[in-house]
């Protein structure tokens, strides 16, 4: 959560292993209360309460009121970028699925390939400073590097993208997407 700031009265822990992916926090000041909520409409918020007021204040909320923060604002094979107009953009090598919708600044129908996928001789377009696509249709292999990841993806005719599983310390592991690429956004900063 990029908006989460380090607070001296809260200790955060993120766990990721073969068994689980979990986020926990511990309040080190027993007079301050905090809670995470996920509403039915998809808002994820951190609320805090400090006596004597006892009311709940929103410390951060996601998505913010930016369209790119909404799930799948732009359709398949397109990405959202708040610094462009329209905000939805096709990945290079693809065209809008519906030019009429695109002209009306509605990118929800997404993009389609200009040429059919041939499963031999195809390559990849590097995308930087991007939020990775939805991971519903992915394969993760933490034992191989990015070079092996690319080769594995090229051998799989259902592979649509690949990325490093962990970008810290030079990057390790492999994530391979085997379905439509959805919910991608560009980060201008960071």
TrEMBL record:
Does the keyword Disulfide bond feature in the UniProt annotation?
A: yes
Q: Which InterPro entries match?
A: Pan_app, S_locus_glycoprot_dom
Q: Which GO terms describe its biological process?
A: recognition of pollen
| Ribonucleoprotein keyword on record | no
What region holds the Apple domain? 119-190
Keyword tags: Disulfide bond, Kinase, Receptor, Signal, Transferase
> What superkingdom does the record give?
Eukaryota
Q: Which Gene3D superfamilies match?
A: Hepatocyte Growth Factor
GO MF terms listed in the record are: kinase activity
Question: What protein name does the entry list?
Answer: S-receptor kinase
Gene giving rise to this polypeptide: SRK
